[in-house]
Design brief:
Number of helices: 13
Order of helices and strands: EHEEEHEHEHEHHEEHEHEHEHEEHHH
Radius of gyration: 21 Å
Strand content: 15-25%
Shape: elongated
Number of strands: 14
């Protein structure tokens, strides 16, 4: 089967959706599919034995549409799979236009919606175009799917297209190891205000008053729309008197991030709207068996149990207490690590790829056996 992915970003550009697409495409190639990824600036060709990259001039502007269509025609896919939204797409409506055009050109369209509930209302309205023009719409959590069902409650026909497939880790799997640094606290993710890094720093400051040996490592990438945020964080670190206890690692490769996570005692990921299974940074840390301190929200899965496989902390005082409880108790860390890693068994790329292939095969069969005969 020939599958063309369309995504706004791809590695090495910093974007969780781009990393996700890269992992999924690679897994599908390993299953025998012929896959290409159309992305900003690059057309990535996936092959069973090698990865070849050729340049295209694509900024997701209206004037690039003919070039995009030429790429699609050359590859001649049996199915187009759009990953939306992503940093590279920005506010462009070209992906929606592509979905609408190729519905008319009789190529099945599948769209994975990575974010809806917290999106701006204008973004939500633009996503509706995918919902109505795609043969299938995939969500990464049941919570996102159920929210969209309520949002389009007057269109039951659209909701029949909905499927849920979880995301996997964007980091490489590493062999389990017993060694870790009991004083190392870690954060990783995109550096912008929505990550609550200031709250983490305040909590870390309090914890360090009790344990002066604690160190904090901030790993992440610069968000293109918040490029000065790292400077703001550096000033805040100095104001808190933590400049000798906090280190940065910017735009590191996945293998380095994975090793740093595995070496740490605990990861603190204070998501402002609460942790869910669509949070790739959480999935990656959990699959490596790193205990996670995070916030609980209304969409936090019931499988995440406080002090069993995760620790919830809703403010900097609770974050400080949680850091101290894990870094000082080896058995507690061991149990949290074991339990969260066990929960992550279903979030593996082999299973995720198989679920996609089933949807692809069913969609293509239905489309060519039924739709084209109407």
């Amino acid at each position: 089967m020939r599958v063309l992915f369309i995504t706004g970003s791809s590695p090495p550009e910093i974007c969780g959706v781009g990393d996700y697409t890269d992992k999924l495409a690679t897994s599908l190639v390993q299953k025998g599919l012929c896959v290409e990824v159309l992305s900003r600036g690059k057309l990535t060709k996936y092959n069973k034995s090698f990865l070849n990259i050729s340049q295209i001039n694509n900024k997701w502007r209206g004037k690039d549409l003919l070039e995009i269509m030429a790429v699609i025609k050359k590859f001649s896919p049996e199915l187009i799979h759009i990953q939306y939204p992503s940093i590279g797409f920005g506010n462009s409506l070209v992906p929606q236009l592509v979905s609408s055009i190729y519905r008319l050109f009789l190529i099945p369209i599948i769209t994975t919606i990575h974010e809806f509930k917290i999106a701006h209302i204008l973004r939500k309205m633009s996503i509706l175009i995918f919902i109505y023009t795609s043969q299938k719409v995939i969500f990464t959590t049941n919570e996102e799917k159920n929210y969209v069902i309520k949002f389009v409650k007057n269109c039951r026909k659209a909701t029949k297209k909905f499927e849920v497939i979880p995301i996997g880790s964007n980091l490489p799997n590493l062999e389990s190891q017993n060694f870790y640094d009991s004083n190392l606290v870690i954060f990783w993710g995109m550096f912008h205000k929505g990550k609550n890094i200031e709250v983490l720093l305040k909590g870390f400051q309090i914890a360090k008053m009790r344990n002066p040996n604690l160190r904090l490592l901030l790993i992440g990438g610069k968000h293109p729309r918040y490029s000065n945020f790292i400077n703001e964080i550096e000033y805040y670190i100095k104001d808190l008197g933590l400049d000798k206890s906090v280190d940065f690692m910017i735009n590191q490769p996945p293998n380095i991030i994975a090793h740093c996570l595995q070496k740490s005692c605990v990861a603190v990921l204070p998501f402002s709207d609460g942790v869910t299974f669509r949070r790739g940074t959480f999935i990656a840390a959990a699959q490596l068996g790193v205990p996670v301190i995070t916030c609980k929200g209304e969409d936090t899965p019931k499988e995440l149990l406080n002090n069993h496989n995760i620790i919830f902390a809703d403010n900097y005082v609770e974050i400080a207490s949680a850091i101290l409880s894990i870094t000082s108790d080896m058995n507690k860390r061991k149990n949290l690590s074991k339990n969260i890693k066990a929960l992550m068994n279903e979030f593996n790329w082999d299973s995720i790829a198989e679920k996609h292939i089933k949807i692809y095969e069913d969609t293509v069969k239905y489309y060519y056996d039924y739709v084209l005969k109407i």
